[in-house]
Amino acid sequence: MDDRELDIPLNASGNINVHQDTFLTKTAGPMDPSYSEYDFSHPRRGIAVIVVNNQIEGHKEKRTGSEKDMTFFQHMFTAYGFEIRTFFNKKSQDLLKELHNISKEDHSENDCFALAISTHGEGVIERNTSREDVIYTTDQTIKVRYLLELFTDEKCPTLKGKPRIVFIQACRGEELDDGVTVHLSTSTSVQNADEEDMTDLSSYTAQKQVVQQASDDADALPSIAAIHRHGPGRHNFTVQPKPTLVSQQVRQTQVYSYSGYTQEEVYVVPAPCYDDFLVMYATPPGYFAFRRTTEGSWFIKNLAEVLLQPGRRSLLRELTRVIRKVSQNMESKNSDKKYDAKKQSPVIYSKLIKDIYLTPKNGSEY
């Protein structure tokens, strides 16, 4: 067969012309901003969904301080030009319907999507084999996985290739972090409060400003081995029983020996994270997340303080600052010694493939 029958462009010498535009196309390189940054030049920044619950059916005590979280979220997203949709004290089916409708909207002209949640939460064990994070609506729980799946490429195709940013303030279990003493080269002041710190685990209730264990702890997370190395506090190393039944879906890792303790296996189910998602939780799997009644949640307060600072900055770098501020500067105060002088460290799960740089949008201001 003659090469000309394949419609391959040849030069005068009869050789393939490799410089023909029909053969070579330029791709973004390291010097091209589109190579390393998500495109934030669309007409609109995008939708930011805020979900806050301060009342759970069957629980007398409200999540005092959650209104502060709402205010922090609103200021933060307004500063970056988001269109804000707020859902306060929604029932599960109503919330899922609202989020489903938003996922079906056309996001083609938006830069990104954001979801921010402040409510009670737990880490539950299903059929003694797998662990799932759940959040509470006013009437029942919803798996975090279900909320995130609504905005995946498959369920929300007009967000494909665009970042989806999620912040979750909720407990993920009943473990408490004692922290470990670290000598820092710079001075760091621990922010003890005049008030007592509350938690966002629904099976615990506040009575007379003291966190006490509720009688219903059926959804409590089995203990795991853990070493904590962040923030000023106390040395803590515990090796506790592992779950007796573990499915093949559960990831197995190890904690190595420390101060004479032998290594123990730890079983962890990875938290859901999908393409172009960044999910930031207030606390690691299995642990409490703290909230102050007059200042709001530790995590949300520090998140807003960092992100509301002016200047063009990398989102991931700024979120790392949030982790440092919470883990080093915050410490619980409670008249019940079990919950006093405890620590907390937010965690990030990311499948972003480019940087996000924080700038105002269309005249919005900090």
From TrEMBL:
Gene Ontology biological-process annotations: apoptotic process; positive regulation of neuron apoptotic process; proteolysis
Record-linked InterPro entries: Caspase-like_dom_sf, Pept_C14, Pept_C14_caspase, Pept_C14_p10, Pept_C14_p20, Pept_C14A
Domain Caspase family p20: 44-175
Domain of life according to the entry: Eukaryota
GO molecular function: cysteine-type endopeptidase activity
SUPFAM superfamilies reported in the protein's UniProt record: Caspase-like
GO cellular component: cytoplasm
Caspase family p10 domain: residues covered: 267-360
Family to which the UniProt record says this protein belongs: Belongs to the peptidase C14A family.
Listed name of the protein: Caspase-3
The organism of origin for this protein: Lymnaea stagnalis (Great pond snail)
